[in-house]
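User: Predict the complex.
Assistant: Input components as received:
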Amino acid sequence: MADATAPYRIRGETGEWEVVIGLEVHAQVTSNAKLFSRAATAFGAEPNTQVSLVDAAMPGMLPVPNRECIRQAVRTGMALAATINRWSRFDRKNYFYADLPQGYQISQLYHPLVGEGTVHVLTDEKDEGSAKAIGIERIHVEQDAGKLMHDQHPTMSYVDLNRCGVALMEIVSKPDMRSPAEAGAYLRKLRAILRYVGSCDGNMEEGSMRADVNVSVRRPGDPFGTRTETKNVNSVRFVQAVIEHEARRQIEVLEEGGAVLQETRLYDPGRQETRSLRSKEDAHDYRYFPDPDLLPLELDDAFLADCRASLPELPDAKRKRFELMGMSAYNASVLTAEVETASWFDVLLSHGVDPKQAANWVVAELFGALNRLGVSIAECPVSPAHAAELLKLVADGTISGSIAKTVFEKMLESGDPAGAIVEGEGLRQTSDTGAIDAEIERILGANADKVEQYRAGKQQLFGFFVGQTMKAMAGKANPQVVNERLRAKLG
Ligand code: ADP
Ligand code: MG
């Protein structure tokens, strides 16, 4: 296994190179209405059925900021331990595009809503040594554009304005990442935090989270090189592929004596390559200026207090709490990686089960079952209450660990509670020495040769006798009692 703490280097023709990565993540804000209009935002609606006069940029329409969108962006900033700017302002970013009827995007350049923050990542879940803090530069809110459809008609393109005006958070990282693995860990962690907070559903396939990938290369220790920006990459895997591809392309250019051009590129997942889209425009090309239709945003104490009070326990805090309960670092990490898992597990804990036993069972047995069934934990056929009942039956010795596996299978099939299955099928564990002794006598009698070998020193045969006895008792004998009785009889 690669050492996650060793610096990531790419070997070129002339020596080693370091990769520098910064990500600009566009995250669609979870909100029923758009950033400046009351039109709906549901995904998958018929084209142009969710477009208000504001979104269609009819003359004389005025944008009105949606309080909920601002609230979600502020909560996100707080979850990233970022500075919240009480005073921020909207700017117009002017450009012409067929899916942007206004001719400008309302965004925030000069005074964003959220300033610097931090995302803590582990590149390797099993290794605390791979921990790293990635800086957030800023978060601003802005409008999304519509969507052009080029594949509906042989000679015409259509435009769907449903997405036009939907609120986005642009979460800009510092150029702090140094490998595809770190970028992946950052994106996954960011996505997890957004989903815990509930400010974005994090669904990359539906486009509610996409990344612009900034990549440059340099000799270790040198100043930053010129970067390229690859737009709208919509999966963690693609982001990592873009980084690798771009880094190698730039290294080739530099090693041949050329210079990297600061430009915007597009990723083609089919060909697994990036290609130039346009040379990078500078901020002044957009003629940014404060939007005269909108007052600056001023946040008061009550609003900020409400945002903070509404934050849930976040993944890092939850992981620490789980570790303090005695769970392994790995279990605590996988149990908190996704908000659905963490919530399910918290409900399980609330039923008073042993945290360590519960964590082991969920990670080994429950995850295994969900994998086999191909369902998410939210669709798990066994409720946390029923799972708690099963764990308690094991903990108090009513059933053995191996019988618990059988009971769990039956729970998955029938949805019945554990206790009912155990009683209905007579699966209680027995410590009845009479019954156990009788079986032991029979087994030792039938295996006289093995008994002799054991007594002559072949200690490993003990396991054989235990196995035979458990089998004869249909797995229901208390293993501890079986061990004791066998030792007594074998002398
Ligand atoms: P712009 O406003 O032109 O988009 P920014 O300074 O805001 O430029 O940076 C955009 C993104 O590019 C940020 O995520 C930042 O971390 C990243 N970035 C900046 N410089 C570099 C570099 N030399 N290599 C890689 N990424 C970089
Ligand atoms: Mg940018």
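Residues 433-490 form a domain with the Arc Repressor Mutant, subunit A fold (CATH 1.10.10.410).
Let me know if you want any component modeled separately.
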